[in-house]
Amino acid sequence: MHSSARGFSLVEVAMALGIAVFCLVPLFALLPMGLTSNQASLEQTMAGNIAGAIVADLRCAQPLVAGTSPRFGFSVPALSGTMTIASTPQTLYLAANGIVIGAVGSGPVVTGTAVPRYRATVGFAPPSTGRTATAVRLLITWPALADSNPNQWPVNYTGSYEADTTLDRN
Fold first, then answer.
1. Which residue of 55, 68, 86, 110 has the fewest CB atoms within a 10 Å radius of its CB?
2. In angstroms, rounded to a whole number, what is the distance separating the alpha carbons of residues 109 and 105?
């Protein structure tokens, strides 16, 4: 009686490994792109949350005369002010978790682990006369330290989130 051993031949094992490698290599190649996309999504979400908090803060502080917003300290111009969006932005620096680092108008503060990740730049265009709304431009950029001048609109950044709104101050 002849007994034959059952098992896989070397050729079958080699082909199975070749097919597995052929399928897994493209998946591993997509991993860095997925991680980059995930990071960009997280940054966009955080920037949107920061923008929402700033807009809520500005809507909370709508004096008919000049004043500052209660949470972040942005200076809201008077209705007859001459402040324009292009010439006098106000800048605030925030950490990666959204915590404010420094005060409005000051440069970035880097101390220990408190490194600014986001830069929030706000500009107002109050109406010169009449009962119309005050236009507000809000630009969140990252990394925060890409542009070091807090008195100008940023031009150097990797990512950005922009929101335009109006304040009804009548």
1. 86
2. 12
Residues 52-108: pLDDT tens digits? 999 998 888 655 556 788 888 888 776 554 544 445 799 999 998 888 887 777 777
CB-CB contact of 17 with 129 (8 Å): no
Q: Which residues contact 80 (CB under 8 A, 6 or more apart)?
A: 126, 128, 129
- State in Å, rounded, how far the first CA of the chain is from the last one: 104
Per DSSP (E only), the strands in 53-158 are 67-68, 75-76, 90-94, 100-101, 118-125, 134-142
Question: Which tokens hold the place of 137?
Answer: 């431009």
0.85 cut: is pTM over it? no
Cα–Cα separations (whole angstroms), residue 128 to 79, 84, 103, 123: 7, 11, 28, 15
Domain range summary for the chain, segments of one domain joined by +: 11-167
φ/ψ bin of 17: left (φ > 0), alpha (ψ from -120 to 50), beta (otherwise): alpha
